[in-house]
Amino acid sequence: MFMFEKAVVGSRRYWSWIGALFAVVLVGFLFYLRQLQLGLGITGLSRDVTWGLYIAQFTFLVGVAASAVMVVLPYYLHDWKAFGKITILGEFLAISAVTMCGLFIVVDMGQPMRIMNVLLYPTPNSIMFWDMVSLGGYLLLNAVIALVTLSAERKGLAPPRWIMPVIIVSMPWAISIHTVTAFLYSGLPGRSFWLTALLAPRFLASAFASGPALLILLAMIIRKLTTFDPGREPIQKLSLIVTYTMIINVFFVLMELFTVFYSQIPEHMAHYEFLFVGLEGHAPLAAWMWASMVLAVISLVLLITPRYRKNERILAVACVMVFLSLWIDKGLGLIVGGFVPTPLGHVTSYIPTVPEMSITLAIWAVGFLMITVFYKIALTVREELAESWLMQ
Amino acid sequence: MSIDRRTFLGVAGLSALAIAGKSTLDALARGEEREAASATQVATRWAMVIDPWKCQKEQGCIDCIAACDKAHNVPRFPARAHEVKWIWKEPFDKAFPDQGSLYTAEAFRDRPVLVFCNHCDNPPCVRVCPTKATWKRQDGIVMMDWHRCIGCRYCVAACPYGSRSFNWLDPRPNIKALNLDFPTRTKGVVEKCNFCEERLAKGEQPACVLACKEKALVFGNLNDPTSAVRDLLRSRYAIRRRPELGTQPEIYYLV
Amino acid sequence: MRDRGIIIGGLILFLGLITFPVWYNAAAGTTSKGPEPKLPTEEKNCVAPVDYMRSSHMDLLVNWRDEVVRQNVRQFVAFDGKTYTKGLTQTCMKCHASKADFCDRCHTYAGVQPPCWDCHIDPKLIQRSTG
Fold this sequence. Notes:
By secondary structure, chain A is an all-alpha fold. Chain A has helices at residues 12-38, 53-66, 69-78, 87-108, 117-120, 127-155, 163-186, 199-225, 232-263, 266-276, 286-304, 306-309, 312-339, 354-391. In chain B, the strands form 4 sheets. A 4-stranded mixed sheet of chain B has the order 8-1-10-9. Chain B has a two-stranded antiparallel ribbon with strand order 2-3.
């Protein structure tokens, strides 16, 4: 039923890739066992900076997961036929991303064996409870949608009618998962860096830029490695989405900067100062943050200029820049910036340790493993269908 | 026996709903039990009034901190990053970032202030905890259940006062002298001042209050108009930390 | 059947591995021995009848835990009318003073590791460090 047999047949290049990913997973897993044994003290986290790389990755990946709606909505709601072939890629990306989110939460937890307490003692006033509910629901929705649509495609039939309401529900649900994740931060009275109504819109804008950017890159990679070619049109349409959402994202960042620096409130400015120039001699993220800004500007130039955007090579470079820029912004700067300076005004630096980075890489490898296997299944199904058509 | 997939999925789904429904009902029922039990308690509102002028009469005195650490097996980790502290001293400008100026009297500006959990009336940490491992008791204490805490550290992020500490490593090797009367905690849970609720249950004052030779810490029931805390609040002006955030802290500092 | 040797050899190996607990314990002479916890000598009664404690002490302790921590109800009236303060170290281990000689005997036999002593202090730890 899950067509996994399609994933265990592959070329040497395929198996080398799978093997390399497994090796990364193994190393990280061993470090995680050490973390289970000793505690989260083996990370670079501290009393002042209690969330770091793990939660930052979680936040970024919720955005990537939500971005599937950017291909699903135009196709199913507005009949953008161009996206017909890549909705399955978006859904599989969403499943892999949500799984990674779940894994990052688990490795960040001090008592992961007690994680069921969140469901055993439901607490509706806690946003974390709703985060678990919405992410779990989103995973289920996408798994069902992907399975049903791919199975139908394989049989050469239209998907059953009942899947349409499920797909429709997945669209506002996608928006909700990232809004809820933003609410984790934007309702905390002591953390002025996050206490902005603009946080959820910023999250959504950066999600809808980084997700489709990744999808474009994945589509191009698949085109190189397999016989599947989505065509020029879906990639160009996706690039328009990336362009506009990246513009909105940069606009939002500028809005934040204006409010913070025109109001001249020291507590609000301090977080940006720490991130971009450093405070009290600590500037662990300054190079990263400026790189993120530079990448954002260059990528916008490339994306806005039609001549560059329509050149798929340059578009690929722009997408890599968008993804990296937003990963730095959300996957590094956002969390640490919220904790430094502390509500009391202390400045504590944060640099992830080797075990922490290894566990992080391992979870990314798990995600890429999932994407590889899912795409292999989907594309093999399509190849077989194409062959059977040819043979008729 | 043959069962088609649709029927199987339907039965599985209904069973899952039934199990989920039961535990939800249980959870709601448990909540009601807790309400009933605490409603029979006398309405108390515990609070603390601190006199920073009396504190630090003796330079470098840490009697209250030592007493709390001993009473609760608070570990002392060598690395500052892994610090666990229930009560400690902060410089004035860190404890009250919204107060003071360049010209605040030197004595006041350089006088370290005792800080610990404020046991807020509107605590953001309670609002965010996904498992109710921290909750507000009827008597005002913001309490912790270390059996239930999953170590997500959401409460640490939510607290505007930095009152909470997470056990990054196993605390046991870092406790000088184990106190049998109180458990330790384990790695992976958050802890903070508990207003000595275990001592209050026996009718005793908090350890820090008793340890202070200058009687700089005054503990009492705000709902009792004749209590020492009410007397002090009536006769002197007191400030609280970051009151504009709406947390309603119950630790008052006399000025 | 060319592989008969490998198959039969593999089956024998499998059977040997799967019955390991049985013949190992028989050889070491441990099968007939049940757990023998050292009972306290001073007190005659626990906080509940022995049969109940043997089967359900974990339920009692979990109830005590929730009642003390979450409801601030700290006194327990036992079946014989005596009042006890709920607490593992303060009450249970006053009589069952040695975790190794009492609690661990059955827990090791049953192969369970209750995490209680991660936090709740085994009194012998203090004696060992001061003695």
